[in-house]
Amino acid sequence: MVRWIPDSQRDEEEMLRAIGLTTSDELYSDVPRKARIGRLGIGTAQEEGEAVRAVDKILDRNRPFSRFANFLGGRFATRYFPAAVDSILQRSEFYTSYTPYQAEASQGMLQALFEFQSLWVELTGLDVANASLYDGATASGEALLLARRVHEGRRFLVPASLPWEERSVLSNYATGPGLTVVEIPFEERTGLIDLGRIAEEVRTGDVFGVLADVPNGFGHLDDHLFELRSTVGDLPLIVRADPLALTVLEPPAHYGADIVVGEGQSFGIPPSYGGPGVGLFACRKDFVRLSPGRIVGATHDKDGRRAYALTLQTREQHIRRSRATSNICTNESLIALAFVVYASVVGPRGLAELQRGLAERARTIASALAGLDGLRSPRFEAPYLSDFTIELTRGTASEFLERLRKRGVLGGVPLRDPRPGAPDQPERILVSATETVDDKAIAKLVSAASSALASTGGSK
Amino acid sequence: MTFRQARWDEPPIWELSASAPTGRAPSISGVPDRWTRKEALRWPELSELEVLRHYTRLSQMNFGIETVTYPLGSCTMKYNPRVSEVIARRKTATELHPEQPVETVQGALEIIWRLERMLSRITGMPEISLQPAAGAHGEYSALLMIRAYFRDKGELGQRTEVLLPDTAHGTNPASATMAGFTTRELPSKSGCVDVDALRAAVSDTTACFMLTNPNTAGLFESDILEIAETVHRAGGMLYYDGANLNAILGITHPGKMGFDVAHLNLHKTFATPHGGGGPGAGVLAANATLAPYLPIPRVVKSGRKFRLDYDRPKSIGKVRSGPGNFGLDLRAFVFALIHGEEGLTHVARRAVLNSNYVAARLGKRLPRPFRPLVKHEFLLSGEPLLSRGVRTLDLAKRLLDEGVHAPTVYFPTIVPEALMVELPETESRRALDEYVAAFERALDDTDEHLRAAPTATSVSRIDEVECARHPLLSWKDLRADGLPPGGASDGRKP
Question: Residue of A247, A335, B17, B58 with fewest CB within 10 Å of its CB?
Fold first, then answer.
């Protein structure tokens, strides 16, 4: 008997009697016989200790990235997070609570979310942030839909350097309203978005929005962003930005962004094989009533005390139903909490220094790899922060990364669309610097890469 | 009445420190000056202890399941086992990047694969995807699959309508709209689907009928097999909103009831924490017809090894980054493993017993619409209070003063002044009796006290209408508004 279900059989019998029944089968007299099932066949109950041993045995087949010289990063961060962050997440008042509909009993989470919104506003330079969406990719999808609400057109422009899974997610968000996601090619030497192509597209008059990312899918900073606003005129401009990068970079609102989205996992929680993370979303004030997601507002209680509540709810599914601005209900509150706790523990100076340090380390890695025959490091001539792209001139990225793994190195994220039938792709890898990358790890990477390339014959 | 919530008058975090960086952000070699932040990030510099104290105080101003009974209808606020929290924090679970080589994540893939097999049996659907981040995200993904299916069949131009009962969760019609369908809500009859009305509504324009069973009135749709036949005869798909699966574990399942595709909320039925509004996990379950459309990648087992399969030409592709909320999948796996077959069936029976036990007692005090036998949750109507000048909202706020969470209120809309109460299996009989007593005390209190409630929470009644009329949505707005520093002392009335 699982101890999470309380009381004895006798209690249950008394409760049944109290409602005029004798067996628990009678609780299901409304389920037709033809709809009943037999056994599920999922196995018998396990004691807690037994289950823990069984699950640990499975988990032990994983090799955590911390056991490698690790250069994985990109959209999911493998950085270190202070223990204080998780200790707050483990407060059961936070993690077991529901969406704070009953504001008076949920001031803690509401205030924390208000602080979270404020932080994303400060980072982006925009006016309003919501209380979170699922992740960076779905936040981009919601931004696409918001752009369509404020501007006519059927075409949405994105850089071709955007990771394939984000392009796939965006295509899904575009499908319902019959919109098209158009990939704008990049300049071969720099990886920067082709402004001329954007201008051409805009001239067709059928474009309703443009998305660019900071850093871009190759890890680089796209200088053309500063010209994007004047190129696209009054079209909604969406920037997907990395929160740590924004601690040292100009806020995207300063170069014309109307909506800024991002992934916040890099502020406070480990990647856990891809989730949960948290989708960040901010926009101009005049877009807010058309925007998706929960929003917390500051107000006062009837005794004049500062208080917080979910607000502008008439946009939302539980009120507006089929005419809601989004279907989102459960979002990522707890991870939003992690985001603001992390930023506050590390502090604004600490964050900027962290980003600066990682950028320095990335330069050391790039130069160390640049000396090797068989790859170009970095592949693109453009500024970058913690991540940059290398390209192999012989062999495949998957073989190369596999050889590195066998030598205790996770060399980076392969930049390829894994779907069969995807067009031929150059052998590119996104390499990232984290706090755990020291000189020894870099030496290990260089030595493993050098021997992997040496054993790969011929040029591609 | 002895309950008192913590009342810290805790200021917003930026008021805790006068120290914030000024001037430019540090410049970085190789990064052109135009990129560099000219004004450093405006956020307070605090010690770790100051930050911890701030958020610990905030936590003390928040109801949670380990502090109070939380009978929020449709949300299944059951105990979130601590052991799941411990397991989900193992380095062997957290320190995994989704782009690691599959050889290094065999354990994660095995957990996903085994949880999918378990959920396949629990739902009676052959294939499962753990990718969606929450229930509404699962709904939306399923509707995209239905869309792709009808496109392949050449019927997308004609099958443009999604039907749903007027008791459906708001996410259902919202998801349908996002997926490009029009929606039509059908009036219920005695709280359930009116099969005649459904027969009259379905046609060759019907893409899908969305249903939760038991429904949001807490009633089991006993005509479910006829409903399924009606929808299928018209060539439509039947969608199962799994928000209320807790009531029927091991008794029936979507497959047996004739559903084609379903979503489940691991954060309801499988006890993963709600996190103050997420993270969730919205599992997709599909029958053989729709399974080819599930998101990629799929986890497959070849021999003793697990791998990711992207070769699904009919798949809708990705609905988010990464394979899913693995941290939540792992918690749900632990929950299912510890319960096993008998445990899960007991979960359902006990949740339904709890609900009926409290419904019978509170039904003596407030009207209960529809038939008496309910499943995991039940409805009450606060309509008789209106003659006292008291609304359901007042009762909900007054319950907070008893140290219990309020029910879901004003939903479903077919019941005037609705209260929707759900008491999951982890509430003891003693807790239920105390809940009934608290509810009765609230009802028996004076009209004035009810309207003045809450008074024992960290703040008193908030005027949410005023909050929406004059939205202050961030620190930036507070600065622009010229409000004095927050806290009780500022004395400003709404």
Answer: B17
Of A149, A126, A156, A154, give the one whose Cα is nearest residue A325. A149
Query: Domain B347-452 is in which class?
Result: alpha beta
Candidates A32, A48, A172; nearest CB to B83: A48
Contact A65 B96 (CB under 8 A): yes
Q: Which candidate from B144, B185, B327 shows the least CB-CB separation from A272? A: B327
Cis before B214 (ω within 30): yes
Q: What is the ipTM score, two decimals?
A: 0.97
User: What b/e string do you get for B126-135 counting C-beta neighbours within 10 Å, with b at 16 or more?
Assistant: ebbbbbbbbb
Do A111 and A203 lie in one domain? The reply is: yes
Contact B12 A119 (CB under 8 A): no
CA B426 to chain CA centroid, nearest Å: 18
- Look up the domain containing A409 and give its range: 66-77+347-454
Phi and psi at residue A155, to the nearest 5°: -110, 135
Task: Among A341, A371, A405, identify where a domain stops.
Answer: A341
Min Cα distance A97 → chain B (Å) is: 5
Mean pLDDT of B411-433: 97
Q: For residue A2, is pLDDT > 90?
A: no
Compute the distance between CA of residue B465 and CA of residue B388 in angstroms, rounded to an integer: 23
Q: Clarify whether residues A419 and A354 are in a common domain.
A: yes
Out of A37, A334, A384, whose CB is closest to B279?
A: A334
Q: Over chain B, what is the mean pLDDT?
A: 95
Residue in B28, B405, B466 closest to A299 by CB: B466
Q: How many domains are contained in chain A?
A: 2
Q: How far apart are the CA of B389 and the nearest CA of chain A, in angstroms?
A: 19
Give residue B491's pLDDT. Answer: 36
Checking DSSP bridges between strand B418-422 and strand B408-409, what pairing results, if any?
antiparallel
Question: Which segment of A448-457, B199-208, B308-317, B339-348 scores lowest on mean pLDDT?
Answer: A448-457
Q: What pLDDT is recorded for position B485?
A: 46
CB contact under 8 A, B170 and A324: yes
β-strand pairing of B206-211 with B237-242: parallel
Query: Residues A270-281: pLDDT tens digits?
Result: 999 999 999 999
Angle at CA of residue B131, ends B224 and B249, nearest 5°: 35
In a domain? residue A218: yes
Following CA atoms A358, A359, A363, A369 in sequence, which dihedral angle do they give, to the nearest 10 degrees? Answer: 50
Contact B40 A96 (CB under 8 A): no
- The residue with tokens 């007593």 is B437
The CATH architecture that domain B83-338 belongs to is: 3-Layer(aba) Sandwich (3.40)
Q: Residue B237 is which amino acid?
A: M
Can you give the CATH number for the domain in which A409 is found? 3.90.1150.10
Residue B231 has pLDDT above 50, yes or no: yes
Partners of A413 in the beta sheet?
A430
Residues of chain A in contact with residue B45, where contact means CB-CB under 8 angstroms, are: 347-349
Separation CA B38–CA A206 (nearest Å): 36
Interface probe with B: pick from A3, A12, A16, A104, most Cβ of B within 10 Å: A104
- Among A278, A307, A341, give the residue marking a domain's end: A341
Q: Select from B44, B251, B462 the Cβ nearest to the Cβ of A299.
A: B462
Whether A45 sits inside 8 A of B347 (CB atoms) is no
Residue A166 falls within a domain, yes or no? yes
A378 and A334 together in one domain: no
A359 has pLDDT over 90: yes
Tell me if chain B has a CB within 8 Å of the CB of A373: no
Residue A226 falls inside a structural domain? yes
Residues in chain A with CB shorter than 8 Å from the CB of B9 are 305-306
Q: Where are the domains of chain B?
A: 1-18+39-62+462-494, 83-338, 347-452
Does the CB of A27 have a partner CB in chain B at under 8 Å? Answer: yes
One domain, residues A384 and A318? no
pLDDT above 80: residue A460: no
- Is the CB of A357 inside 8 Å of chain B's CB atoms? no
